[in-house]
Design goal:
The chain is of the alpha/beta class and about 200 residues long. It has one domain: 3-Layer(aba) Sandwich (Rossmann fold). It contains seven helices and five strands, in the order ααβαβαβαβαβα.
């Protein structure tokens, strides 16, 4: 009986150490994620070639401007603006930035990143496009890229985000902090609700 009690006590202590170690690891990950959001949230595939650029709504003019730069750098010959409300304005901005009007399409039904992926992927498939560059804000790039990959695993997607707001100035710090905090919540929510793994 004493031997069994000793074994049980040792196992109990081992599990306590394991749980304590996991708790410390999770705490360190949370601190790192908050201290280094750009490093954690940003996915940038670097210069690449694709068949289309998909610029997602929900940001400011930095997103269509980034897409226009990539178009002019010949990374892709077509731009699709995706997002209810923003897509028409983004199209105008792209044309003002030098993208030819015939090379800009709009998708105006999506109201979330998940719908951006679902509705835009249908357009891509309809045009037999298999390689696309996702343009969004840096803090949204991880979730956006993995969401598109989740809903179209047969396609190849690349991330080329805008870095506007990546440097925390006094005027933008609170805005970016709110966006970053919300993005961590959405990353977890998309993983749990839709299976879009952010890793």
């Amino acid at each position: 009986m004493q031997f069994k009690a000793l074994v049980y006590l040792r196992q109990s202590r081992l599990w306590t150490k394991i749980f304590a170690g996991l708790a410390v690891l999770i705490l360190l990950m949370v601190v790192a994620a908050w201290a280094f959001p750009k490093e954690v949230l940003t996915v940038d595939s670097g210069p690449t070639k694709a068949d289309a650029i998909v610029v997602l709504g929900g940001g400011g003019i930095e997103r269509p401007e980034r897409a226009a730069d990539l178009f002019k750098a010949r990374e892709a010959p077509l731009v699709i603006c995706s997002g209810c409300g923003d897509a028409p304005a983004y199209r105008v901005r792209l044309i003002q930035s030098g993208v030819t009007a015939k090379d800009v399409l709009v998708e105006t039904n999506s109201r979330s990143t998940r719908e951006n992926a679902e509705f835009t992927n249908a357009i891509l498939r309809g045009r037999h496009i298999h390689r696309a560059i996702i343009v969004t804000s840096w803090y949204h790039s991880r979730r956006a890229l993995h969401c598109f990959e989740h809903y179209a695993p047969d396609m190849s997607f690349y991330s080329r985000p805008s870095y506007a707001g990546s440097l925390r100035t006094e005027s933008s710090e609170q805005h970016i902090a709110r966006r970053v905090t919300l993005e961590y919540v959405k990353l977890l929510g998309y993983w749990v609700c839709y299976g879009a793994c952010p890793l």
